[in-house]
Amino acid sequence: MLKLFAVAVCAAVLAACGGGGDKTPKPVVVVQPAYKMTETAVGTGRAAVAGDLVTFTYVGYLYDSTKSDFKGEKIESSVDIGTTFTATVGVGLMLTGWDQTLIGMQAGGKRTAIMPANLAYGANTRDAQTVNNIKYAAITANAPLVYDFVMVNVSPQVVIPNVPATDLKTIDVTTGTGTAVVSGQTVSVRYTGWLYDGTRSTFKGAKFDDNTATGDTLLQFVTGGTGVISGFSTGVIGMQLNGTRTIIIPANLAYGATAKAGNARYGVAIPANSALVFDVTLVSSP
């Protein structure tokens, strides 16, 4: 799981009874298993190395030493919700245990890993949760975990020669009506965002975010301001009501050297120094 995943931290203590009614709290000591990786199926093709873009599925369990497979209650699963997870491997964007296990995997390969807490969520905790009517157990502090992984795809994360270096590029797909937007105006938009891929004619790689689904909230911001990334904020200037524009944003006008998590709906992270592509429709303006 991406390290940007937010968790609550708590300290668990166990009260020990002593003479004279004195009770001194003692920290709970969780016995940690050693890291162990078992390869249950060998895939084919490129073996993942640090820096590669990998797509995979995962199922996570609490570690249970009483079980023959050490799998206790389920804590999370991309399989249950019918999706995959895509991120750059070996660069610290995921749990250390995930990086350690995914390195060397090939498409179609399957691995199971037992992870001590220091390779998983450490002292962090997460409450029990229900996703798509499926209940998942809570993650307690210093909990060792077990994960099943299936690799779907491995591709090298290369620097594409025609990634825009410093210049913003806009393409009007549909011209709207009315007065064109100027800097300093408040606008509301629908958008879809992709990682830039210079090998494609549309330059649209993996989708990482959108607000186009039924019930999604419009994105509202001040043009030329700081509420959104610079390239997005300035890229809509000149649009007209109900117009649609494609905006190609170089990394220096996006998130720069900072990696970001994408929308959980798509499970695609934004690597550091990524150029981005957005389709934007202007829904309202002054």
Primary descriptors:
six-stranded antiparallel sheet
What percent strand?
Answer: 35-45%
The percentage helix is under 10%
Number of helices: 2
Largest sheet: 6 strands, antiparallel
Identify the overall geometry: elongated
- Classify the secondary structure makeup into a structural class: mainly beta
First and last CA, distance:
41 Å
What is the averaged pLDDT score? 85
Number of separate strands: 18
Query: What is the helix/strand order?
Result: EEEEEEEHEEEEEEEEEHEE
What's the alpha carbon Rg, rounded to whole Å? 23 Å
The unreliable regions are 1-19
What do these coordinates show?
This protein is 5% helix and 38% strand. Mean pLDDT is 85; it is low at 1-19. By secondary structure, it is mainly β. Strand 2 (13-17) and strand 3 form a beta hairpin. The protein has helices spanning 96-102, 230-235; strands at residues 8-9, 13-17, 23-27, 36-41, 53-63, 71-77, 85-88, 110-115, 124-125, 129-131, 134-136, 145-155, 169-174, 186-196, 204-210, 219-222, 244-249, 276-284.
